[in-house]
Amino acid sequence: MRLRRMFALCVGLGCVSVGLLVCSASALATKITSRYPTWSQPAGGVTVHVSGEGFTGATEVLFGSSPATSFNVESDARLTAVAPPGEGTVEISIVSASGTATGWKFLYHAADGPEFGGCGRFDPHEAWIGYLRTGNCIEPLNEAAGYSFNPLIAPDANYGFTTASKPSAVLKLETKAKRLITCKAEHGIGMITGTKTVRGVVLTFTGCADSKLGACQSGLASAGEILTTELNGTLGMIKRELSAAKDKVGLELGPAAGAFASFECGGIPITVRGSVIAQIGANVDRVNSTVALGEAKGTQKPNRFEGGPLIQLEEQIGESAAYEQAGLDLTAIAGGHPQLEISSRF
């Protein structure tokens, strides 16, 4: 009898032990896999849908160090939280008995288009759907399906972009006195660094020659190549129309320091200074957007944002010559991250 009781006790303890292991294995660590929308006005008040696991028993939802105005755990995999007032970029954290999940960024931002971002959707019943890859946020069908624009939060290496001139494009730099430099092609690189900004933009023009001086060349570049200095850029509104689809948006490009470009043509030094506005597609598909710089008789078109100052280039031919107003003409195709677009209003 004693042996039987000991055996039964041993079996019983074994069962308890196994049961504890099963319980431990079934307790999921808290983890966030998505959140939408990704931003709010500084006043807060936006309901944020969060997907993940281990949400059951959540005791707190934080936006940075500020607790959510309120939150509701819908299931172990989904919850909603009302964003409190805030500023800048913060991290969303969910605190529960099984741990704290964090690392997903949330942006407080006073929306003022045009801006870089993505058009995405979060269905409360289906969780995160993903970013729109065709069309845009302002199309009625996409709006009806619940897609909305979210400004860019955390740029990384994936937000680089390239430009390449159209084969039939006319590339020229012309002064008011009709002094002309023509090029055969252009290619460029850059990085989107914020909701309105680009950095590290370098444009390379090939097959370039001055109408009077002959072939042009920048520094150690190949013959016929003109390189801009490193340019920075900011999005702006050229003209706001009644319909968002017709809004005209531009990207002002200017040197981070020094001249816009410096090169020689026929051994004569030429310096170009100032900035330009490149008109760029907004509220359209993200892939293969057209970038256009226009000029007529040395006058840049467009040459200002709504309510802004005049933006133009000036060219100096020879070290002691006076600067003269000039315009750059270029039509190129910009390619980049497939989930990014420019919205003029949202």
Secondary-structure blueprint of this entry?
Blueprint lengths: L1 H25 L4 E6 L2 E2 L6 E7 L6 E4 L2 E2 L2 E6 L2 E5 L5 E9 L2 E10 L6 E9 L3 E5 L8 H5 L3 E4 L8 E6 L5 E5 L4 E4 L1 E8 L4 E10 L2 E2 L3 E4 L8 E2 L3 E9 L8 E8 L5 E5 L2 E7 L1 E5 L8 E8 L2 E3 L11 E5 L6 E12 L5 E3 L3
Parallel strand pairs: 2-9
Antiparallel strand pairs: 1-3, 3-7, 4-5, 4-8, 6-7, 8-9, 10-11, 10-12, 10-30, 13-16, 13-29, 14-15, 14-29, 15-18, 16-17, 17-20, 17-21, 18-19, 19-23, 21-22, 22-25, 23-24, 24-28, 25-26, 26-27, 26-29, 28-29
Q: Counting H and I runs of at least 4 residues, what is the number of helices?
A: 2
Helix percentage range: under 10%
Distance between the termini: 80 Å
What number of structural domains do the residues give?
2
Overall average residue pLDDT: 82
User: Approximately what portion of the residues adopt beta-strand conformation?
Assistant: over 45%
Using only C-alpha atoms, the radius of gyration works out to 28 Å
Count of extended strands: 30
Q: Which term fits the overall shape?
A: elongated
Largest sheet at a glance?
17 strands, antiparallel
Low-confidence stretches: 1-26
Q: What's a quick, concise take on this entry?
A:
By secondary structure, the protein is mainly beta. It is 9% helix and 51% strand. Strand 21 and strand 22 (248-255) form a beta hairpin.
State the main characteristics.
2 helices; Immunoglobulin-like; 17-stranded antiparallel β-sheet; 9% helix; 346 residues; 30 strands; five-stranded mixed β-sheet; mainly beta
